[in-house]
Amino acid sequence: MSSQEAKLIFDGRTYRLPVIKGVRGERAIDIRTLRDDTGLITMDPGLANTGICRSSVTFVDGEKGILQYRGYPIETLAEHSTFVETAYLLLHGDLPTRDELSLFSRQLNESSLIHEDMRLFFRAFPNHAHPMGILSTMVASLSTFYPLPDVLDDVAEEQFIANLISQVRTIAAFSYKRAIGEPMVYPSCNLRYIENFLNMMFSSPVKDYKLDADIVRAVELILILHADHEQNCSAATVRMAGSSLSNIYSVISAGISALWGARHGGANMEVITMLEHIRASGGDGRDFVERAKKKGSNERLMGFGHRVYKSYDPRAKILKDACHKLLQKPGVSDPLFDIAVRLEDIAMHDDYFLERNLYPNLDFYSGLILKAIGIPYDMFTVLFAIGRVPGWLAQWREMVHGDNFKIARPRQIYCGADIRSYIPIAERK
Ligand code: SDX
Prior knowledge:
mainly alpha, Rubrerythrin, domain 2, Citrate Synthase, domain 1, 18 helices, 6 strands, 50% helix, binds s-citryldethia Coenzyme A
């Protein structure tokens, strides 16, 4: 990458800092020697202006609404690819050949069972346990049943990557069956990734589940669109946790925990709650939008706004069309979709949102598709996590195989008490 320079003038001295340039023109001031050279650190709570790595996995241009996985536009992957193929692309850097894809699919299928003793864990969770809490716990527990070898060669790495992508889906389906008191349905070697998930979720010994091609395609689309998104909160968490050389299962569990938050992956559930609330109020959502605009309001237009996209999230466009198409199916209509479309229209004509570049994001329409498919509301973020596992693994893999990566250890500006002497408890007031 070509480099220019930035000048910092401080305390009467001029410092030259290299500027590094990405292949798409984004530029960064390289501050790796800043503290040694100047004694200064930088301050950037939320890291909105801070690059934490060089990456070739995903490219996002928030101003132009561009998202590409390994150079492939999200629109073409959404139209032509499958989730397993997209996962391979993110992990290996190129689209697989036919043989590579069938080997990867077979690996995923062969890794789809979890140890039988892990099934006992589900009994230990309380009935009301949130599936994201179960998922993060069970994924971290995988490390006890599938301990990593001391020497992590390529074969071992490929195996636990397949384990995680496949077992996350099985754990999700098992947690749902446990929640509804039905027997767990095992993965089948005759079904593809998505079909297996839907079958494990919705079939039962007394009721065959008929796979519907439109539903399979809708889940495929959801998982493709959620597969990666450069240094989002949960991917940065995976890099942070992974930088201490922590066990990959616990690293992915950390990513799941970060994703759970309402500002991040938890927003898809919050959107449905918001739409249900507006429907119950009988209004058209205008008063809700007004409340969401109020300074200090704890109500936000969920599914709107994004740290990076200052334009329409390309994934939201794809999901809105897919949602509209799915809801045309007989018996699948949902009045919440009309409320969502109306809310979007209100916001897109309101200066408050336009001035702040607040547009629909990935979560605004995804929940409506999941709801139409019959995915229970509290599993929406679980589907997000299933989709995001390949992206987290691709980011982790890029970091651990990168040149001399360091443990992540940010600095701070201290604003606490000055030095004080210890006071024995008898003398404290
Ligand atoms: C995801 O990073 C990623 O890539 C994430 C993700 C991925 O694929 O991994 O894309 C997935 O997490 C999508 C985002 C899902 N979250 C939501 O939909 C929750 C609602 N959105 C907001 O909470 C918010 O927009 C964030 C968290 C997404 C972004 O927050 P920022 O960039 O920190 O922006 P901010 O909170 O500083 O807000 C800037 C202004 C503020 O107003 P002012 O102080 O300027 O008056 O915009 C306002 C905010 O009050 N604002 C909103 C709003 N989002 C921001 N006002 C009303 N409704 C909203 N949704």
